[in-house]
Amino acid sequence: MNVARLWTIARLELLQRVRSVSWYVLLGVFAAVLVGVTALSFLAFGGMSDSGGPGVYSTVVYITLLLVVLVSPTLSGNSINGDRDAATLAGVQVTLATTSEILFGKLLAAWITGLAFAAVAVPFLVVATLAGGVDPLTVLVSAVILLVEVGIIAAIGVALSGILARPLFSVATTYLVVAALAVGTLIGFGLVGMSSQSTYTSSYRYAVYDPQTGAPECVEGADRCVNDPENWQCGPWETQSYTGPRFDRVWWLLAANPFVILADASPTNYTEYGTPDDLFGQIKLGVRYAQLTPELESTWDECAVQTDTTQREARDVIDSTVPSWFVGLGVQLLLAAGLLWWAWARTRTPARTLPPGTRIA
C-alpha cells in the first residue's frame, strides 16, 4: 500500500467537503450546541465544588460523541457508491491506486472529518479542565476512546458505501447499524432482562401492637419492651413469592455500546461522599450494578435487632465487578473489519458481478 497515493485520495475527498458551505454551517451549529451544553453543565455541576470540572468535561465529551454518531453516517455513508453514481470512481480505479488504497483513503478522509468535530470541542474541554478536578488520566483515556470510536463509525459508513449500490440506502443502513450499537443495545438489555425472570421469595413477620396504646406487646414475663425488639410479641411468619427481572444475566449486551465503552474505560474518581464525580463514573456504576446477582431470598423480622443493611458503596461495586470495555471495543473492531473486507471485495477491479443498474463509468 502506497502512503502517497492513499493520502492523495484522502486529500481529494477532504477538498470536496471543505469547498461546501454546508460543512462550515454544520461545524458552526455544532459549536453553538457546545456553548449551550457547556453553560448548562456549569449550572448543573457548579454547586458541587469537587465535581464541577469533571462533570462538565464528561458531559462535553459525551455530547461530542453523540453528535459524531448523528452526523458521521451522513458524511461517510456515500463515499464509494456516491463516486460510482457520479462516474468518478472508475477514473480512479484505472490509475495506479489499488482497491485497498481507495478504500482506506476514503476511510482516512471520513475519520478526519469526524475528528473535526472533536477539534471544535477542544476549547470547551479546556475550559472544563481549567475548572479544576479533572484527572489527567481520565482526559487521556477518554480522548483516545473518543478518537477510536470516531474511526469505527467512519469505517462502518465507508464500508457500507462500498457494499451497497445506492447512496441513500447505504446512509440509512449506516444509521441503523450505529443505532443498533448506541440504542439497540439498551433496548435489548431492557427487554431481554425483563423477559429473563426468576422467582423471589420474601419471608417476614411483624410485632403484635396493643390497640389501645399503639406500643408493641411484650412476651410473657417482660414488663417494658418498647426498645427491646427481642421481647416483643410477634405474629406468625408469612412468605410471599413474586417474579422479577434478572439483568445480571444480560448486562453483557451493553458491552458494545459506544457510550458504555467510553464510561467503562475511563478511570473513576470519587467525591468526598463516595460517589463518582463525573458522568463516566455514574454510567459505569450503573452498568456494574447490573452485573450483581440479586438475592432471591430475603427475610424481615421486626422482632429482631436489625443489622446494618446499607447499600454497597460505589467504589466497592466498581472494584468487585468486571470491566467489559475491551470486549465491546473488540466486537466493534471486528464488525468494522468484516464490513471493510466485504467492501473491498465489492469494489476491487476487475469486478465479476455488479448489482443491476450499477454505473461503472
Task: Compute the number of helices.
Answer: 12
Main sheet overview: 3 strands, mixed
Q: Which class best fits the helix and strand makeup?
A: mainly alpha
Strand content: 5-15%
β-strand number = 3
What is the 3D form? elongated
Strand order in the sheet with the most strands: 2-1-3
Succession of helices and strands: HHHHHHHHEEHHEHH
Please state the CA-atom Rg, rounded to the nearest Å.
28 Å
Mean model confidence by pLDDT: 83
List keywords for this structure.
elongated; mainly alpha; 3 strands; 12 helices; 361 residues
Description:
The chain is mainly alpha-helical. It has a domain at 3-189 and 322-347. It is 60% helix and 6% strand. A three-stranded mixed beta sheet has the order 2-1-3. The longest helix is centred in the first third of the chain and has 32 residues, at 99-130.
Give a short summary of the structure:
The chain has 361 residues and is mainly alpha-helical.
Set down the secondary structure blueprint.
Layout: H1 3-18, H2 21-45, H3 52-76, H4 79-85, H5 89-93, H6 99-130, H7 136-163, H8 167-195, E1 197-205, E2 238-245, H9 258-265, H10 279-291, E3 297-301, H11 314-320, H12 325-347
Parallel strand pairs: 1-3
Antiparallel strand pairs: 1-2
Helix pairs in contact: 1-6, 2-3, 2-6, 3-6, 3-7, 3-8, 4-7, 6-7, 7-8, 7-9, 7-12, 9-10, 9-12
